[in-house]
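2024-03-11 09:14:02 DEBUG pipeline.ingest accepted 1 chain
2024-03-11 09:14:02 DEBUG pipeline.ingest length=295
2024-03-11 09:14:03 DEBUG pipeline.predict start
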Amino acid sequence: MAALFANLPPFLDVPGTPPIPWHKWKNIFQVHLKAAGGSGWEDERRASALLSALGVEGQRKYFAAQEQLEAQGVQNAPHTASTPAALGTGAVSTTEAATEYDTLLQFLDGLFAETTNVLAERHLFTSREQLPGETFLEFVAALKEKALSCKFGATYDDRVRDQVIHGVANAHVRAKLLSYGEGLTLQKAEEVGRDLEALNKANAAFGANERLLGSLAGDGGSVQRVARGYAAASQNGGSATSAAPHSCCLGNPFLVPRLSSATTHRLKCTLRCLRPRINHRDFRGKVLGVPPHLQ
């Protein structure tokens, strides 16, 4: 059986705070148990598998709690959770139909329940802002995770949505979200923020490409004119370093100067970059497929 749970981390091996909170670790264990075929095991075997996965310190706490209940006159406390002493540990009352495994789970729920300072958790939640390098969706996911410990109840979605607006780093995204008013849902906020972030990244890439072309063009587009002359010289059988005059497509004489290797490299880059121009609106709508309401 050890091989079946080889990838399952023990709940608590050493004294201190569990590396994974109990409610999360319990779900992980149940997934491993099902994958190992534990659904068909005898009830006692499933309970033993759970105890063996608690780790050294987890087992110590379990047996210490059991001994304390036995000293109070309650025998097999985890298996008789309906007794008053067992209920005092946080266990839930069970019926006769409850299995040994289920009763043990309820006992451990009471034993390892996390103590949470809701006010402190809510303070951390409302202080959370989007971090440098953190994407919009990563920021929203972090807020959702933190909100779970804040006990917002039915207002969970609205609280997360409000904090998204408050903590998002991009002012344009915040203004767009606020423009929706009270009709803005958390799901809609995620969609709008994701699309606007993608649009901002595309605009940044577009602007970088424009600056690159501008730097290659030099003063007044002289490098592009030289590039056209370079192409004309090649078509006429000449060379880029030739000093002989050539005619461009407009019939004006064009003298190609002797070029250094660095300038020749820039000319080649310019030739590769020459392409039909497209304005920002066409780029957003036709190339990126951005909806009109986000442009």
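2024-03-11 09:14:41 DEBUG pipeline.report The two ends are 58 Å apart (CA to CA).
2024-03-11 09:14:41 DEBUG pipeline.predict end
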